[in-house]
Amino acid sequence: MIGRRPFLLALSTAGAGLSAATEGLAANSENSAADGRVVVVNLFEEIKKTRIPDNIRVVRTSGYSSPGLGAATYTETNASGDTPYRRQSVDGRWWQYADDVINVTAFGAVPNAPPTFNSRAAINAAIMLANQRSASSASMATVLIPAFSAQSE
Predict the structure, then answer these.
(1) Are 145 and 6 in contact (CB under 8 A)?
(2) What residues form DSSP beta bridges with 102?
(3) Residue 52 CB: number of other CB atoms within 10 A?
(4) Are strands 94-97 and 86-88 parallel, antiparallel or unpaired?
(5) 89 touches 13 (CB < 8 A)
(6) How far is CA 84 from the centre of its chain?
(7) Could you give the CA distance from residue 61 to residue 24 in angstroms, rounded to a whole number?
(8) I want to staple 29 with a disulfide (CB 3.0 to 4.6 A). Which of 40, 79, 88, 99 is the partner?
(9) Residue 88 pairs with which residues in a beta bridge?
(10) Sheet harboring 67-77: ordered strands across?
């Protein structure tokens, strides 16, 4: 179970490091294309139904499965394979989660969801991406887990 206070989970390649955040924190991405062109897609799942113009390198979503929850920034990547943090657009290009802080809501976690909803897969996907980022750089990745009700897990 996840407690009511928000947590930041900082993962090194060994997956260690946990610090509690007592104030609200939000993933704030300033990622943008060099020319400033960004495409906005309503939901993460819609990336796979969208043809992204060739001159676009950044896609922003307004949510994961519902608008307003899990908004994120995705950048074009050479990596491939469908994951909770990577999708292929209709034109064959791959887009990967690019926000500096990895927010579990961008992978489908729902704070204060009904007891029948399980956010475990989304949290695991965020940790998997953090481990991947940490392994490929000298710095640790940060995962944001917002306040969840005790019933949601």
Answers:
(1) yes
(2) 143
(3) 20
(4) antiparallel
(5) no
(6) 8
(7) 21
(8) 99
(9) 94
(10) 39-43, 58-63, 67-77, 94-97, 86-88
Closest Cα to residue 102, out of 89, 114, 86, 115? 86
Tokens at residue 9, please?
A: 């989970």
Mean pLDDT, all residues of the chain: 75
Which amino acid makes up residue 91?
D
* Pairwise CA distance, residues 30 & 89, whole Å: 22
Amino acid at position 3, single letter: G
Q: Got the DSSP string for 46-74? A: GGGG-PPPTT--EEEEEESSBEEEEEEEE
Helix, strand, coil share (%) of the chain residues, nearest 5: 20, 30, 50
Give the pLDDT confidence of 42-57 residue by residue, as tens digits: 999 899 999 999 999 9
75-105: per-residue pLDDT in tens?
999 999 999 899 999 999 999 999 999 999 9
What band does 14 get if pLDDT is binned at 50, 70 and 90? very low
Structure tokens at 20: 């509690």
Place of tokens 């960004």: 38
